[in-house]
# Entry
Amino acid sequence: MATFSIMVCASHYANQSNQSALRFAQAVIAESHAINGIFFYQEAVTTANRYNHPPSDEPNITQAWQTLAQEHQVPLLLCITAAEKRGIIGPDTHPQASMNIADGFQVTGMAEFASLAIEADRVIQFK
# Structure
């Protein structure tokens, strides 16, 4: 059994990369491997916006990530710097600043991802 750390850099609506990351994570779990964390970086931080409401004929990628995290206890980590830059959170870290963040996502920094990557057997990045 291998342990994976996954970094997602693409927006949930710009291309297929974010959805490919989700499918990869589901496949890793189905093969009885472990995921120690999924880090949303750059444009991927928009995935964690609680106000994402896609049209009914499109998949709700935010909800799909939340389901994966809840069912398999996989941490969904949101880069604080990228989230601030894109207006997902405010420049402070008060609880009110996190109101735009969907349930299940945790605000953290690149250092947290680096720690997870060191502990993982494989690090996979989706751009």
Q: What stands out?
A: Residues 3-49+60-126 form a domain with the Hypothetical Protein Ychn; Chain: A, fold (CATH 3.40.1260.10).
